[in-house]
């Protein structure tokens, strides 16, 4: 047993010592996580929709094992389907389009903070990376619609292009409100700030609503599922796709749905933190000493807490995902003019107004000039202070260290 | 290259590579018997008439044009937002700068609105 543990340790240290290898292992873990999450989300979607429509849902594979068997059956079916390409299709855009949708859907997991110190890679440009990468699928969907040589597909692709770019603006403005309040683009820093001042989430509540509505449109789920509107456009932009190529779009959509929920949780609902309850629990029930925890030194935080935060993060994300599904299965689909009118005439002005409001509040709040502290009990948390917009190679100019004077009410 | 760039590259390569392998496995496992009728594009069961690349409503282009304008705005706001609470003093100046910037853009939106660029008829 000891020999095994030693071997595991040696392997772990070998991996940790090689940056590239470590990144690769993390990337593989993220991919597996994404695929498992997609399987769970598809199963959940079926069961939730069945529940809302007073059905039982898929029962052929049966029982508790139903989840595993049904997912395997779905995957096998898609794998074995004949892959057809219409004779008149534009070959290269048709082949490349699924990649343009799938790869960004996976790439965004790079910045997702699963737990206090578990981030695949805490990029300095953090949330800006998401804004950049999440704009690419619109291109892929428009390409798929155009290249299929099918009238339904073209209509779906055009709708997708108009809708996705229109809702990117309110989405970006809602994210800006968060960036403004916490003064950082790094995901770790954003969640750490909420961990220490949970009441800041109340300020970003309107931004959360804007983000969720815009996010639903971004992943084109009902009532915004116009790009694939199956009762109007057959299957919209993916009418001519079959087999694994269709699976790409399907997988990317569910992955993006989960990611939008997880991002909403991370930016607006405290991410992995539990609004101070976790610190209280650790102190008084587990008799730990949170004052020794340092987010910059992962080893200083006990593993049990990290795992606990990971489950908190998953639980919150699935609650938001469930809300999205609930909305999807109870709302009728909008018309394209209604969707664009709502986006440009209501959501965009609302997002601008919200940004003005939040910046007004931010101007009144104390400066972020001293290190962030959770409570009096908790030691300063050291967050990498660079703004993230400076070139990575040169050392960024020394900014004043991050700090917030306001003590969080209600935390021990 | 820094660790951060390497991470992005590895994620990118893995994302592309994984799906290429999945498609290759599917290619080996699936049947492939294309016929003339399988390769026609779907048009509710009848034979497709005319080209699918037809003329589309000009509205879509106007939205794209407006999007470029506003998206650049959002990109410009990021650096401003990051330093907003980090600079000591001058918050009111920063705030009024944003207000003026946003006001100019709102004026643009109102102009497009009044010109009927956001209408469908």
Which helices and strands occur, and which strands form pairs?
The complex is a heterodimer of chains A (412) and B (121).
Chain A (H helix, E strand, L loop, with lengths): L1 H16 L1 H34 L13 H15 L10 H17 L18 H8 L2 H12 L3 H32 L4 H10 L3 H4 L1 H14 L24 H26 L8 H8 L18 H28 L5 H29 L48
Helix pairs in contact in A: 2-11, 2-13, 3-11, 4-6, 4-11, 6-7, 7-10, 7-14, 10-11, 10-14, 11-13
Chain B lengths: L2 H27 L29 H25 L7 H24 L7
Helix pairs in contact in B: 2-3
Question: Would you kindly provide a written description of the structure presented here, covering whatever features stand out?
Answer:
The complex is a heterodimer of chains A (412) and B (121). With 412 residues, chain A is an all-alpha fold. Chain A has one domain (81-390). Helices cover 61% and strands 0% of the residues of chain A. Chain A is built from 14 helices and no strands. Chain A has helices at residues 2-17, 19-52, 66-80, 91-107, 126-133, 136-147, 151-182, 187-196, 200-203, 205-218, 243-268, 277-284, 303-330, 336-364. In chain A, α11 packs across α13 (303-330). The radius of gyration of chain A is 23 Å and the shape is globular. The two termini of chain A are 42 Å apart. By secondary structure, chain B is mainly alpha-helical. Chain B has a domain at 58-114. Chain B is 63% helix and 0% strand. Chain B has helices at residues 3-29, 59-83, 91-114. In chain B, α2 runs antiparallel to α3. Chain B is flat. The model of chain B has no long low-confidence stretch (mean pLDDT 81). The chains are: A mainly alpha (412), B mainly alpha (121). Chains A and B meet through α2, α3, α4, α5 and α7 of A and α1, α2 and α3 of B.
